[in-house]
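Question: I have long wanted to understand how a fold can be written as tokens. Here is the record:
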Amino acid sequence: MSKFATLLLTSFIGFNTYAANLDIEAGENSYKTLCVSCHGDLGQGDGIAGKALSEQPSNIYDGLNSWFESEAELIDTVLNGNEGMPAWNSVLSEKDVKDIFAYIEKINSK
């Protein structure tokens, strides 16, 4: 097997292992409880409460699929907040945030 094929197979197995450890249902529950009012039904920054803010909430799905922002940076923003978003580290763990991200990916892939 070529080095490229080995690397590709290893990456695929690693991704599936990562995905298998995520709880999309828990992510959905957390998202609908904590995030939907600002970020909207699909995580695209168009929630009803977000419309009242001076700065529109981020499109989470676009952020997850961006080449210039890593998942670690997005997790840090959720947990520690930024100028337009409160910190959720007293409510959510890193695993919870990853579950939310998995849910956002799922509902946007339909």
Remarks:
- The chain has one domain: 23-108.
